[in-house]
Backbone:
């Protein structure tokens, strides 16, 4: 089976929207420091573009977990493969995700993070596929784009570890 990628959200649109979200976060956290946590590897491109545009003091950390194998269907099993380097107790934490699909990954991460007693905990995602949500209890604070149920790549998102470096969000089409 071979695949092609069709542009879905252009680089210009993605970056304009990231600027809007960064402005909102900077305004809402004015006078405070924010600790942004990126979920590897998908959130890295989004996290950089967001962080560059924040005007408040920022610290950063990363963690890695996965709920997907090499295919396109969530297995619902979350594995934490790299924990945070720093404690988050008392910090204003924003978890940064590439995409929220079933919500299984975030459901698990939110439970882990809440136990560590941050001062506040919010969620920020580049993409959201609300129609696929299993964890309906998850509230997303900052969403760049809500999308239909397409399998998307680019801007950090992969298919079989490929296409993360595309500067736009694309849809994978299979022949
Ligand atoms: P969830 O646990 O089902 O919400 O899945 C979240 C993770 O699955 C994301 O962080 C992505 O790594 C991956 N994922 C979900 N949908 C897509 C997609 O359309 N393209 C690429 N990766 C996806
Ligand atoms: Mg992934």
Residues:
């Amino acid at each position: 089976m071979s695949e092609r990628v069709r542009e879905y959200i252009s680089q210009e649109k993605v970056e304009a929207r990231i600027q809007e979200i960064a402005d909102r976060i900077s305004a809402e956290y004015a006078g405070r420091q924010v600790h942004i946590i990126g979920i590897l590897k998908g959130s890295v491109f989004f996290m950089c573009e967001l962080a560059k545009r924040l005007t408040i003091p920022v610290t950063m950390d990363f963690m890695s977990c996965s709920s997907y194998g090499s295919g396109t269907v969530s297995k619902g099993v979350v594995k934490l493969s790299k924990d945070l380097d720093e404690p988050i107790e008392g910090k204003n934490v924003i978890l940064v995700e590439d995409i929220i699909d079933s919500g299984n990954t975030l459901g698990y991460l939110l439970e882990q993070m809440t136990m560590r007693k941050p001062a506040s905990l919010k969620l920020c995602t580049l993409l959201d596929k609300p129609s696929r949500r299993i964890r309906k209890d998850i509230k997303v604070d900052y969403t760049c784009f809500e999308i239909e149920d397409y399998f998307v790549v680019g801007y950090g998102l992969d298919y079989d570890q490929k296409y993360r470096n595309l500067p736009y969000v694309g849809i994978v089409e299979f022949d």
